[in-house]
Amino acid sequence: MYAMILAAGRGERMRPLTDTLPKPLLKIGAYCLIEYHLLRLAAAGFNHVVINHAWLGAQIETALGDGQRYGLHIRYSPEGEALETGGGIVNALPLLGTGPFLVVNGDVWTDYPFTHLRHKKIDGLAHLVLVDNPAHHPQGDFALQQGIVQLSEQSRLTFSGLAIYQPKLFAGLTVSRFSVVPLLHKAITAGQVSGEHYQGEWDDIGTVARLQALRERKVTLPVD
Protein backbone atom coordinates (compact mmCIF):
# COMPACT_ATOMS: atom_id res chain seq x y z
CA MET A 1 0.00 0.00 0.00
CA TYR A 2 1.22 3.48 -0.89
CA ALA A 3 1.01 6.37 1.58
CA MET A 4 0.57 10.08 0.93
CA ILE A 5 1.40 12.93 3.27
CA LEU A 6 -0.48 16.16 2.61
CA ALA A 7 2.09 18.91 3.05
CA ALA A 8 1.07 21.72 0.68
CA GLY A 9 -0.64 24.11 3.10
CA ARG A 10 0.61 27.65 3.59
CA GLY A 11 0.33 27.53 7.39
CA GLU A 12 -1.15 31.01 7.71
CA ARG A 13 -2.01 30.57 11.39
CA MET A 14 1.58 29.53 12.10
CA ARG A 15 3.09 32.77 10.88
CA PRO A 16 5.71 34.14 11.32
CA LEU A 17 7.26 30.66 11.78
CA THR A 18 6.04 29.59 8.35
CA ASP A 19 7.12 32.72 6.51
CA THR A 20 10.51 31.14 5.81
CA LEU A 21 9.92 27.45 6.64
CA PRO A 22 7.14 25.11 5.47
CA LYS A 23 5.01 23.87 8.36
CA PRO A 24 5.94 20.17 7.96
CA LEU A 25 9.58 21.05 8.70
CA LEU A 26 8.88 22.65 12.08
CA LYS A 27 10.75 20.79 14.80
CA ILE A 28 9.10 18.97 17.70
CA GLY A 29 11.81 17.52 19.86
CA ALA A 30 14.34 15.55 17.85
CA TYR A 31 12.44 15.50 14.57
CA CYS A 32 10.57 17.65 12.11
CA LEU A 33 6.80 17.14 12.21
CA ILE A 34 6.78 15.28 8.90
CA GLU A 35 9.65 13.02 9.99
CA TYR A 36 7.49 11.48 12.70
CA HIS A 37 5.16 10.28 9.95
CA LEU A 38 7.98 9.05 7.73
CA LEU A 39 9.77 7.07 10.43
CA ARG A 40 6.58 5.46 11.67
CA LEU A 41 5.35 4.66 8.16
CA ALA A 42 8.64 2.90 7.49
CA ALA A 43 8.41 1.03 10.80
CA ALA A 44 4.87 -0.07 9.86
CA GLY A 45 6.11 -1.62 6.63
CA PHE A 46 5.28 1.08 4.10
CA ASN A 47 7.85 1.44 1.32
CA HIS A 48 6.48 4.14 -0.99
CA VAL A 49 5.42 7.59 0.18
CA VAL A 50 4.16 10.51 -1.92
CA ILE A 51 4.41 14.04 -0.51
CA ASN A 52 2.64 16.98 -2.11
CA HIS A 53 3.93 20.48 -1.56
CA ALA A 54 3.43 24.08 -2.65
CA TRP A 55 4.62 26.84 -0.31
CA LEU A 56 8.44 26.59 0.02
CA GLY A 57 8.16 23.05 -1.28
CA ALA A 58 11.74 22.93 -2.50
CA GLN A 59 12.82 23.04 1.13
CA ILE A 60 10.83 19.87 1.82
CA GLU A 61 12.52 18.05 -1.04
CA THR A 62 15.95 19.22 0.08
CA ALA A 63 15.35 18.24 3.69
CA LEU A 64 13.88 14.79 3.04
CA GLY A 65 15.56 13.77 -0.20
CA ASP A 66 14.58 10.49 -1.78
CA GLY A 67 13.67 8.96 1.57
CA GLN A 68 16.53 6.49 1.69
CA ARG A 69 17.66 7.48 5.16
CA TYR A 70 14.16 6.79 6.48
CA GLY A 71 13.97 3.41 4.78
CA LEU A 72 11.48 4.74 2.22
CA HIS A 73 11.15 5.67 -1.40
CA ILE A 74 9.73 9.21 -1.50
CA ARG A 75 8.23 10.84 -4.58
CA TYR A 76 6.97 14.40 -4.69
CA SER A 77 3.83 15.93 -6.16
CA PRO A 78 4.53 19.66 -6.53
CA GLU A 79 1.72 22.16 -6.83
CA GLY A 80 2.22 25.70 -8.09
CA GLU A 81 -0.66 26.82 -5.89
CA ALA A 82 -1.94 24.61 -3.08
CA LEU A 83 -4.78 22.48 -4.44
CA GLU A 84 -6.35 21.66 -1.04
CA THR A 85 -6.90 18.09 0.06
CA GLY A 86 -9.02 16.81 -2.81
CA GLY A 87 -7.13 18.53 -5.60
CA GLY A 88 -3.80 17.53 -4.10
CA ILE A 89 -4.79 13.87 -4.04
CA VAL A 90 -6.13 13.93 -7.61
CA ASN A 91 -2.90 15.56 -8.78
CA ALA A 92 -0.87 12.82 -7.07
CA LEU A 93 -2.99 9.84 -8.22
CA PRO A 94 -0.54 8.81 -10.98
CA LEU A 95 2.07 8.24 -8.24
CA LEU A 96 -0.16 6.30 -5.86
CA GLY A 97 -0.59 2.96 -7.60
CA THR A 98 -3.85 1.26 -8.46
CA GLY A 99 -5.04 0.06 -5.06
CA PRO A 100 -6.23 1.71 -1.85
CA PHE A 101 -3.77 4.19 -0.35
CA LEU A 102 -3.26 5.80 3.03
CA VAL A 103 -3.40 9.59 3.42
CA VAL A 104 -2.30 11.52 6.49
CA ASN A 105 -2.28 15.27 7.03
CA GLY A 106 1.23 16.58 7.42
CA ASP A 107 0.21 18.96 10.22
CA VAL A 108 -1.00 16.40 12.75
CA TRP A 109 0.94 14.49 15.39
CA THR A 110 -0.39 11.12 16.48
CA ASP A 111 0.65 7.79 17.91
CA TYR A 112 -1.93 5.94 15.82
CA PRO A 113 -0.44 2.56 14.80
CA PHE A 114 -0.09 2.81 11.01
CA THR A 115 0.19 -0.98 10.78
CA HIS A 116 -3.58 -1.16 11.41
CA LEU A 117 -4.28 0.76 8.21
CA ARG A 118 -1.61 -0.95 6.13
CA HIS A 119 -3.43 -4.25 6.59
CA LYS A 120 -6.95 -2.80 6.59
CA LYS A 121 -9.36 -4.22 4.03
CA ILE A 122 -12.18 -1.88 3.07
CA ASP A 123 -15.28 -2.67 1.05
CA GLY A 124 -16.37 0.91 0.40
CA LEU A 125 -14.71 4.01 -0.99
CA ALA A 126 -12.95 5.20 2.15
CA HIS A 127 -12.11 4.40 5.76
CA LEU A 128 -11.71 7.32 8.17
CA VAL A 129 -9.99 7.53 11.54
CA LEU A 130 -12.07 9.71 13.86
CA VAL A 131 -10.94 11.15 17.19
CA ASP A 132 -12.48 12.90 20.18
CA ASN A 133 -13.36 16.52 19.46
CA PRO A 134 -10.57 18.90 20.49
CA ALA A 135 -11.35 22.16 22.27
CA HIS A 136 -10.89 24.16 19.07
CA HIS A 137 -13.36 21.97 17.11
CA PRO A 138 -16.10 20.99 19.57
CA GLN A 139 -18.79 20.40 16.93
CA GLY A 140 -16.94 17.50 15.30
CA ASP A 141 -17.31 16.34 11.70
CA PHE A 142 -18.98 12.96 11.40
CA ALA A 143 -20.90 10.42 13.46
CA LEU A 144 -19.93 6.76 13.70
CA GLN A 145 -22.45 3.95 14.06
CA GLN A 146 -21.33 0.32 14.11
CA GLY A 147 -18.25 1.10 12.06
CA ILE A 148 -20.07 3.12 9.41
CA VAL A 149 -19.53 6.89 9.11
CA GLN A 150 -22.73 8.93 9.19
CA LEU A 151 -23.69 12.57 8.57
CA SER A 152 -25.82 12.69 11.72
CA GLU A 153 -25.64 15.80 13.87
CA GLN A 154 -25.59 13.64 17.01
CA SER A 155 -22.50 12.30 18.78
CA ARG A 156 -20.13 13.60 16.16
CA LEU A 157 -16.39 13.01 16.23
CA THR A 158 -13.54 14.85 14.50
CA PHE A 159 -11.91 13.57 11.32
CA SER A 160 -8.25 13.07 12.19
CA GLY A 161 -6.88 13.64 8.69
CA LEU A 162 -5.89 9.97 8.58
CA ALA A 163 -7.72 7.76 6.09
CA ILE A 164 -7.60 5.08 3.45
CA TYR A 165 -9.05 6.02 0.07
CA GLN A 166 -9.94 3.95 -2.95
CA PRO A 167 -8.80 5.54 -6.23
CA LYS A 168 -12.36 5.27 -7.57
CA LEU A 169 -13.47 7.85 -4.98
CA PHE A 170 -11.75 10.35 -7.30
CA ALA A 171 -12.80 8.76 -10.61
CA GLY A 172 -13.49 11.22 -13.41
CA LEU A 173 -12.12 14.24 -11.55
CA THR A 174 -9.59 16.60 -13.06
CA VAL A 175 -6.90 18.50 -11.23
CA SER A 176 -8.32 21.64 -9.63
CA ARG A 177 -8.44 23.26 -6.22
CA PHE A 178 -11.04 21.56 -4.01
CA SER A 179 -11.51 19.88 -0.64
CA VAL A 180 -11.99 16.14 -0.22
CA VAL A 181 -14.90 16.78 2.18
CA PRO A 182 -17.71 17.05 -0.44
CA LEU A 183 -16.54 13.75 -1.95
CA LEU A 184 -16.68 12.16 1.47
CA HIS A 185 -20.17 13.52 2.12
CA LYS A 186 -21.39 11.97 -1.14
CA ALA A 187 -19.75 8.64 -0.36
CA ILE A 188 -21.09 8.68 3.22
CA THR A 189 -24.61 9.31 1.95
CA ALA A 190 -24.19 6.23 -0.26
CA GLY A 191 -23.06 4.17 2.74
CA GLN A 192 -19.59 3.73 1.28
CA VAL A 193 -17.41 5.03 4.14
CA SER A 194 -16.35 2.97 7.13
CA GLY A 195 -14.60 4.37 10.15
CA GLU A 196 -13.09 3.84 13.56
CA HIS A 197 -12.80 5.88 16.75
CA TYR A 198 -9.20 6.27 17.87
CA GLN A 199 -8.74 7.41 21.46
CA GLY A 200 -4.96 7.62 21.61
CA GLU A 201 -2.72 10.65 21.12
CA TRP A 202 -3.69 13.06 18.36
CA ASP A 203 -2.94 16.75 17.97
CA ASP A 204 -3.77 19.17 15.18
CA ILE A 205 -0.74 21.45 14.98
CA GLY A 206 -2.59 24.39 13.48
CA THR A 207 -1.37 27.29 15.60
CA VAL A 208 1.83 28.45 17.24
CA ALA A 209 0.26 27.86 20.66
CA ARG A 210 -0.55 24.23 19.85
CA LEU A 211 2.94 23.69 18.47
CA GLN A 212 4.47 25.09 21.65
CA ALA A 213 2.19 22.96 23.83
CA LEU A 214 3.32 19.83 22.03
CA ARG A 215 6.95 20.84 22.34
CA GLU A 216 6.54 21.34 26.06
CA ARG A 217 5.19 17.80 26.40
CA LYS A 218 8.59 16.58 25.19
CA VAL A 219 7.06 13.97 22.92
CA THR A 220 9.15 11.11 21.61
CA LEU A 221 8.81 8.95 18.54
CA PRO A 222 5.78 6.68 19.13
CA VAL A 223 6.33 2.96 18.66
CA ASP A 224 3.53 0.88 17.10
Q: End-to-end span in angstroms?
A: 17 Å
Q: Kindly provide the name of the CATH class.
A: Alpha Beta
Supply the number of helical segments.
Answer: 6
What low-confidence regions span 5 or more consecutive residues with pLDDT below 50?
none
Our Rg estimate from Cα atoms comes to 16 Å
The assigned CATH architecture is: Alpha-Beta Complex
Domain Nucleotidyl transferase: 3-126
Keywords: Nucleotidyltransferase, Transferase
GO molecular function: nucleotidyltransferase activity
Protein name: Mannose-1-phosphate guanylyltransferase
Short description:
Keywords: Nucleotidyltransferase, Transferase. With 224 residues, this protein is an alpha/beta fold.
Could you give the topology of this structure?
Blueprint: E1 3-6, E2 27-28, E3 31-32, H1 33-43, E4 48-53, H2 57-64, E5 73-78, H3 84-92, E6 101-105, E7 108-110, H4 114-118, E8 126-131, E9 143-145, E10 148-150, E11 158-165, H5 181-189, E12 193-198, E13 202-204, H6 208-216
Parallel strand pairs: 1-4, 1-6, 4-5, 8-12
Antiparallel strand pairs: 2-3, 6-11, 7-13, 8-11, 9-10
